[in-house]
Model the fold of this input.
Amino acid sequence: MTHAHPTAGTSASAGAGADAMAVAAGLIDAGCVSVRTDEPYRLPSGWASPVYMDCRRLISFPALRRDLVARGIALLASHGCTEGLAGVAGGEASGIALAAWMAEALDLPLQYVRKRAAGASQVEGVVPAGARVLLVDDLMAAGHSKLRFCRALADAGAQVADLFVVFDYATFPTAQLLAPLGVRVHALATWRDVLAVAQQRGDFTPAARAEWADFLAAPAAWSQAHGGLGPTAHS
Done:
């Protein structure tokens, strides 16, 4: 069972129920989640948020990363996304290790996409013309880097129909960026899942959870009120 998030890309899907809650608990336990009630986090895209996700820590937890890779492949397979794949491409830098583990599990070639071209190439590895490639990254917040990765892969001759991330903020208007490319976004958990676990277990302070809930009730308005981009940023 899956559910869609309206702020994600075309036909977005995410882990649901117990799966999403288990992933959310793993992210908290691995120390990936930080919450501020004073100065907000300012994302590179310009959005402001009281919560920050650092999925780069996951590489140091072998059991958790194996579980996330297995859950990711199961989610993708349930949507038919693993059929006919010719490769798995990781986004620089945090998506490369995750893509490598998924490529190994699927017995597929690996590529990686640079944030910017190095010399004449932005995509490393062999990309057969017209090949369908799965783009993999650790998380998605505003989606700008994912847009650049998709365009670079297309320029290299690949077809990208699906993007997998462990975590999707699912708060900011990423649809305007990715939907025109026809890219479906698949994530194991969102901030709502992580907050639900934190509330159940009493993680973080009550004030932190309250600020978090206020943000999720109106992310763009919260961002604008705290010095970040606002509701009209992409109108």
Observations:
- The helical segments are 17-29, 62-78, 94-106, 144-155, 175-178, 191-201, 206-217, 219-225.
- DSSP finds eight helices and twelve strands in the chain.
- The longest helix spans residues 62-78.
